[in-house]
Specification:
Number of strands: 0
Helix content: 25-40%
Largest sheet: none
Distance between the termini: 68 Å
Keywords: Membrane, Transmembrane, Transmembrane helix
Transmembrane segments: 48-71
Structural class: mainly alpha
Number of helices: 1
Radius of gyration: 27 Å
Shape: flat
Order of helices and strands: H
Length: 74
Amino acid sequence: MKLPRENRVEQAVVAPPPEAAQRVEGGGAWGPTQFDLPERSGSNSQTILIVSLVGVLVLLVLAGLWTFTYFQLG
């Protein structure tokens, strides 16, 4: 059984906001993209340190829980 192909009229479903036409920079009509973020000033050493400390803390907690269950059940 063959059905006839339906012809549809193309129409825009979503349109950029009206103020997008006046933007000069900022990633386009929908706002900034990942490449249009503000420039970083300084280094990321503090962020790296915090993330590393949190990671070490999580690993220590997991090792402690594993050790506790090992000796409780063994």
